[in-house]
């Protein structure tokens, strides 16, 4: 569920999720970059790509909100609930991506408007502590991604896929309670 700031960690024991976010923030209420774990209620895998990630289940959009945030509301407090699964907040324009610092941009990632930090090389990403210039948006532009195989990152009960840099799952049992393993 491409997101605006996601990290590669997921603590299935306490229900918290950290995503490779724009400024190392977490959840639907924060600004971040596309998730490596999918634990932020969004995935960077494209529909039909075979990548399974843990996604929070829901009944209404408010179920997808991070506690104690202005949600539901304007971006980044605008997650959605589609077919019983949370969908990450959608940015509307580059102004929504100010949390990533100078250069943050709203780009489609796997068909989802997401805040990313465009890059030409790893120096931009390293300066922002956002991993490496390791991923591309839907138009082929490079952006920073904190991959799950980066030092210090952890996928919880999930597995790190070295090809995509995402935390992936094979069954719902690898996900937090009330989350599902879906493509």
Walk me through the structure.
The chain is mainly beta. It has one domain. The protein is 3% helix and 27% strand. It contains one helix and twelve strands, in the order βββββββαβββββ. The strands form six sheets. The chain has a two-stranded antiparallel ribbon with strand order 1-2. A two-stranded antiparallel ribbon has the order 3-12. Strand 6 (105-109) and strand 7 form a beta hairpin. The longest helix has 6 residues, at 122-127. The radius of gyration is 14 Å and the shape is globular. The protein starts with 5 loop residues before the first strand and ends with a strand.
Question: Top keywords for this entry?
Answer:
single chain; 183 residues; mainly beta; two-stranded antiparallel ribbon; globular
Number of domains: 1
Low-confidence stretches: 1-46
Number of helices: 1
**Quantity of strands, as a count:** 12
How much beta, percentage-wise?
Answer: 25-35%
Largest sheet: 2 strands, antiparallel
Helix-strand blueprint:
Layout: E1 6-11, E2 16-20, E3 53-56, E4 80-82, E5 85-87, E6 105-109, E7 112-116, H1 122-127, E8 132-136, E9 142-145, E10 159-161, E11 166-168, E12 179-182
Antiparallel strand pairs: 1-2, 3-12, 4-5, 6-7, 8-9, 10-11
Summarize the structure.
This protein has 183 residues and is mainly beta. The chain has one helix spanning 122-127; strands at 6-11, 16-20, 53-56, 80-82, 85-87, 105-109, 112-116, 132-136, 142-145, 159-161, 166-168, 179-182. The protein has a two-stranded antiparallel ribbon. Strands 3-12 form a two-stranded antiparallel ribbon.
């Amino acid at each position: 569920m491409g997101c605006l700031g996601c990290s590669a960690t997921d603590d299935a024991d306490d229900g918290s999720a950290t995503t490779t976010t724009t400024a190392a923030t977490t959840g639907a209420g924060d600004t971040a970059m596309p998730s490596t774990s999918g634990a932020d209620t969004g995935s960077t895998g494209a529909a039909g790509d075979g990548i399974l990630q843990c996604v929070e289940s829901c009944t209404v959009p408010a179920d997808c909100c991070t506690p104690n945030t202005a949600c539901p509301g304007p971006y980044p407090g605008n997650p959605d609930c589609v077919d019983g699964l949370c969908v990450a907040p959608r940015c509307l324009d580059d102004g929504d991506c100010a949390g990533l610092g100078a250069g943050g941009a709203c780009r489609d990632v796997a068909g989802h408007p997401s805040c990313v930090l465009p890059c030409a090389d790893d120096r931009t990403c390293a300066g922002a502590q956002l991993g490496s210039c390791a991923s591309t948006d839907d138009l082929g532009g490079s952006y920073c991604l904190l991959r799950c195989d980066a030092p210090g990152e952890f996928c919880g009960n999930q597995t790190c896929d070295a090809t995509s840099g995402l935390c992936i799952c094979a069954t719902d049992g690898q996900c937090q309670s009330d989350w599902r393993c879906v493509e």
